[in-house]
Amino acid sequence: MEQANETVQKKNLFSAIQPSGSITLGNYVGALRNFVLLHEQYNCLFCVADLHALTLRQDPAALRRNSASLIALYLACGLDPEKNIIYCQSHVPEHTELAWILNCFTYMGELSRMTQFKDKSQKHADNINAGLFTYPVLMAADILLYQTHVVPVGADQKQHLEICRDIAGRFNGIYGDVFTIPEGYISKTTARIMSLTDPTRKMSKSDAEDSYVAILDAPDVIRRKFKRAVTDSDAEIRYDPENKPGVSNLLSILSAVKGTTPQEEAQALAGQGYGALKEATAQAVIDTLSPIQARYQELIKDKEYINRVLQEGAEKAHAIAFRTLRKVYKKIGLYQV
Ligand code: ATP
Ligand code: LTN
Fold first, then answer.
1. Atom 14 (ligand 2) nearest CA
2. Quick one: 109 exposed, middle or buried, by C-beta within 10 A (0-12, 13-18, 19+)?
3. Distance 273 CA to ligand 2 centre (A)
4. Hey, which of 19, 26, 93, 207 would disulfide with 67, CB 3.0 to 4.6 Å?
5. DSSP E strands: which ranges in the chain?
6. Which of 29, 156, 159 should be mutated for ligand 1, with most atoms under 8 A from CB?
7. Which ligand is nearest to the CA of 32?
8. d(CA 244, CA 322)
9. Ligand 1 — pocket residues by CB below 6 A?
10. Is residue 124 part of a domain?
11. Which ligand 2 atom is at minimum distance from the Cα of 18?
12. How far is the centre of ligand 1, averaged over its atoms, from the C-alpha of 117 (Å)?
């Protein structure tokens, strides 16, 4: 029986992160850490969503640097390019090609309901571009090109996954089973790490620097940021996200990196002050990130290796994406020679 199981075809997993800034602890515990936990069980594609990053203004040099840095970080976290497909979205043209088709199967009404669009429009009122509006369609194309079964993401992406499922279902309803309908993989306690300066908002790499811990922050910077993290005034260490968002956020981070639960950490620290909670969290984060940072520093120096990973990744991704796109073109009646 066990042997039979081993021969069962692995399912497909796809996820991506935008190279829109320094990768944060939120990205790590909400997404990247799950990539590492899941990558052995699935056929995985891990993508650098550089086209999505363009929905906010990016400095060209910084975008290039952040893209190479994110690849090095994927590798430093333990994703093996021999076993997984690691690549840049802009290197595989099928993403934008399928996105156009899917645009024609997506309603303005459903896109206007997206909270990320509303949030980002508010934050960047001077640049409410069409790409920001159709962002979820490109994301659906990313996922659907690879007949993806599982998509590990943070809770903020749940709505985008729903619209992806709706678009795929709509398309399949008209043309037959073209796309696999994907499922989200969202951890319960770490799906939404909050900002250190405003624990009612999500930690985000495009916000002010003191609001997030970056995976590549030095230990003294990490300590300082946690020391300054907003808590509350009643001095009780208890996991209660509704009423104690700051303290609960620290407990979520602490337990995520230690592999425990926030409740267990609250119990272990009961009776102590917030200073102890902050120090314990900072130390546990430093212990987790240090080996990743050391591997990262080695990898980022080796541009040739990074470029090779990207080239091979793009070739492998293209071979799969091309098949799906051809099928889509055929089904919808685009004349093919
Ligand atoms: P930006 O601020 O540029 O929009 P971001 O920090 O939200 O970026 P993304 O690239 O949009 O990061 O997200 C990459 C992955 O990290 C996604 O799966 C997303 O759900 C997850 N993620 C982002 N922020 C958090 C967070 N605060 N807590 C948990 N997961 C998160
Ligand atoms: N929109 C995602 C990044 C992203 C993504 C994807 C995640 C782009 N394409 C496909 C999962 C699957 C975000 O985290 N903001």
1. 17
2. exposed
3. 38
4. 19
5. 11-17, 42-48, 85-88, 150-152, 183-185
6. 156
7. 1
8. 49
9. 17-18, 20-21, 24, 26-27, 30-31, 153-154, 156-157, 191-193, 202-206
10. yes
11. 3
12. 14
In a domain, 192, yes or no: no
pLDDT digits (tens), the chain, 337 positions = 445 555 678 999 999 999 999 999 999 999 999 999 999 999 999 999 999 999 999 999 999 999 999 999 999 999 999 999 999 999 999 999 999 999 999 999 999 999 999 999 999 999 999 999 999 999 999 999 999 999 999 999 999 999 999 999 999 999 999 999 999 999 887 788 999 999 999 999 888 999 999 999 999 999 999 999 999 998 899 999 999 999 999 999 999 999 999 999 999 999 999 999 999 999 999 999 999 999 999 999 999 999 999 999 999 999 999 999 999 999 999 999 8
Residue 48 lies in a domain: yes
Which atom of ligand 1 approaches the CA of 120 most closely? 4
Distance 264 CA to ligand 2 centre (A): 32
Which amino acid belongs to residue 13?
L
Output the DSSP codes for 56-81: S---HHHHHHHHHHHHHHHHHTT--T
Say if residue 217 is in the same domain as residue 312.
no
Residue among 191, 190, 184 nearest 261 (CA): 190
Taking the whole predicted model, whether its pTM rises above 0.85 is answered as yes
Active site residues: 120, 202, 205
Do 21 and 101 have their domain in common?
yes
Residue 270 sits in a domain of what CATH number? 1.10.240.10
Residues 117 and 32 in one domain: yes
154 vs 152: CA distance, rounded Å: 7
Domain of 232 in residue numbering reads as: 209-298
Q: Determine the Cα–Cα distance for residues 68 and 303; give it in Å rounded to an integer.
A: 8
Domain match, 23 and 104 both: yes
